Amino acid sequence: MVREDGKRNFALQDRAGNETSVFSGNTPRQAALKAARRLDQIAPNEGSATRVEIRMRERGTSKVHIYDAWAWRTTAPPDSPSWMPKELIEANVSKKGIERIE
User: Fold this and answer.
1) Is the pLDDT of residue 4 over 90?
2) Are 43 and 50 in contact (CB under 8 A)?
3) Pairing relation of β-strands 63-75 and 42-43?
4) How far from chain centre, in Å, is Cα 39?
5) Domain ranges across the chain
6) Strand 52-58 and strand 63-75: pairing?
7) What's residue 1's pLDDT?
8) CA 68 to CA 94: how far, in whole Å?
9) Which residues pair with 65 in a beta bridge?
10) In angstroms, how far is CA 8 from the centroid of its own chain?
11) pTM of the model
């Protein structure tokens, strides 16, 4: 279901189908990127990052968006504001497909 601001809610599912948390975004990819930043396996750089399958169920529909996700640590740019942490977590996702559930 789409909210007034155009965002949709996506529930992160584990392999058993249990929903552990909810992420919002205009697109499924945007919500998947938010979820990927919270992965347990965060590598020191992108080249050594392990890809993990994540499943995002769109609330109000029977669609489950499936992605390969990976995350890594990086340093903040030198011109970053003082409130920004010196170490950041970046993430990327690659869509594998969509499943429909009954």
Assistant:
1) no
2) yes
3) parallel
4) 8
5) 8-100
6) antiparallel
7) 67
8) 5
9) 56, 98
10) 14
11) 0.89
Instruction: Write out the E strands in 33-82.
Output: 42-43, 52-58, 63-75
Between CA 69 and CA 92 the distance in angstroms is 6
The pLDDT tens digits of the residues spanning 71-94 come to 999 999 999 999 999 999 999 999
The neighbour count for residue 82, using CB atoms within 10 Å, is 4
Instruction: Give the residue carrying structure tokens 């992420």.
Output: 23
3-state secondary structure of 36: helix
The one-letter amino acid at 57: R
Q: For residue 32, which of 46, 11, 18 has the smallest C-alpha distance?
A: 11
**Tokens standing for residue 70:** 């990976």
pLDDT at 46 over 80: yes
Q: What is residue 101's three-state secondary structure?
A: coil
Task: Please name the residue that has the structure tokens 């392990």.
Answer: 50
84: which 2 tokens? 């920004």
